[in-house]
Design a protein that fits this description.
This protein has 344 residues and is an alpha/beta fold. 44% of the residues lie in helices and 12% in strands. It has one domain: TIM Barrel, CATH 3.20.20. Helix 1 links the parallel strand 1 and strand 2. The longest helix is centred in the middle third of the chain and has 21 residues. The two termini are 23 Å apart.
Length: 344
């Protein structure tokens, strides 16, 4: 076990506490101040949406976009930080209400592809070759409204266009089965990696696995990670936790199911995750009741839990584990894991 772990989160993870049922409950934090918090919280990199790096991106020329992205890179360097990835934010524009790449409107599809190209430009200017692609609205509320085979073809065409646009860019698809759509076309890791095989550069398509998204699909996050690791396709993770098959809750890592979190840490460590420069990313939200002055604890707490579970995993008597496996005494193995987790 020799995983190398560096941590990131996105600026959206320090937020005002708005939700679909109520307004902000905390004061906003300026972006520059957020950057100043990363190192103090133990983080080395920043996850970006394209318009986190270049606000108002739709109203700017490609030249302006690149100039502002380079300025952001300098701001990161001043804080001792790097950009982990850039993600095109395609789900908030009115033109993507029916999907971006799979919209029934050709003009809307063209907008989504152009926005994707600008995201690649931003990533290039900021010194990262990783794009995270959450296919948020690439699905449907009513199946008769779209042809799912045609929709997958549209996603493949888009990926091919982007892979051709930049010769070294890598795209990590972030699967999610639902929300905001009732059903999305690429709901799991297996779907994403199968999709990669239809592109012009399968070696440049991987995945970003989010714990909650796997749970929403009825899957175990560590198994999804293991599947991707076996293909050398796990290029980022979004760790968090989830209370049942509900909406995407983005709870602090390990706060609901500590054993589930343990197995995520263990699979990453056992397969040397991070050896290729990959980060451990968090996508967690503060509880809405948390006061503004302490509304970053969900981030530092998640990192603390990860590192503590790493210690727990590495402290396991591996010889004993293997002996129990060989004996097929899984009840005793179960007790060993539980005793290790509760410290007795």
């Amino acid at each position: 076990m020799a995983g190398t772990f560096r941590f990131t989160f996105g600026p959206w993870n320090i937020h005002e506490g708005t939700d679909p049922f109520g307004p902000a409950v905390r004061d906003g934090v300026e972006f520059s101040r957020k950057l100043g918090l990363y190192k103090a919280l133990g983080f080395d990199g920043v996850q970006f949406h394209d318009d986190d790096a270049v606000p108002g991106i739709n109203g700017k020329t490609p030249k302006q976009v690149v100039a502002e992205a380079k300025a952001m890179k300098s701001a990161l360097q001043a804080q001792g930080l790097v950009a982990e990835f850039v993600a095109p934010r395609l789900w908030e524009d009115e033109r993507t209400i029916d999907g971006g790449f799979t919209s029934n409107d050709a003009a809307c599809r063209a907008y989504a592809r152009e926005r994707f190209r600008r995201s690649i430009d931003i990533a290039d200017a900021m010194g990262t070759n990783l794009i995270v692609l959450w296919l948020a609205r690439e699905g449907t509320y009513i199946r008769e409204a779209k042809d799912s085979s045609w929709a997958v073809d549209q996603i493949v065409e888009t990926l091919n266009e982007m892979l051709t646009y930049h010769p070294t860019i890598r795209i990590a698809i972030e699967p999610k089965p639902n929300e905001p759509m009732d059903h999305t076309y690429i709901p799991t890791t297996g779907h994403a990696l199968a999709l990669a095989q239809r592109t012009v550069a399968p070696d440049r398509i991987g995945v970003n696995i989010e714990s909650a998204h796997a749970i929403l699909a009825g899957l175990d996050p560590s198994d999804e990670m293991g599947f991707a690791l076996s293909f050398d396709k796990l290029w980022s993770v979004h760790l968090n936790d989830q209370n049942g098959l509900k909406f995407d809750q983005d709870k602090a890592f390990g706060s609901v199911d500590l054993r589930r979190a343990f197995n995520q840490v263990r699979i990453l460590d056992r397969h040397d995750y991070g050896k290729g420069g990959e980060f451990v990313g968090l996508d967690v939200k503060a509880m809405r009741t948390q006061k503004g002055a302490v509304a970053t604890k969900h981030l530092s707490n998640s990192r603390t839990i990860f590192l503590r579970l790493l210690e727990v995993s590495r402290s396991l008597d591996e010889a004993r584990v293997q002996a129990l496996i060989a004996e097929r005494d899984y009840e005793e193995l179960d007790l060993l894991i539980m005793q290790t987790l509760i410290g007795c």
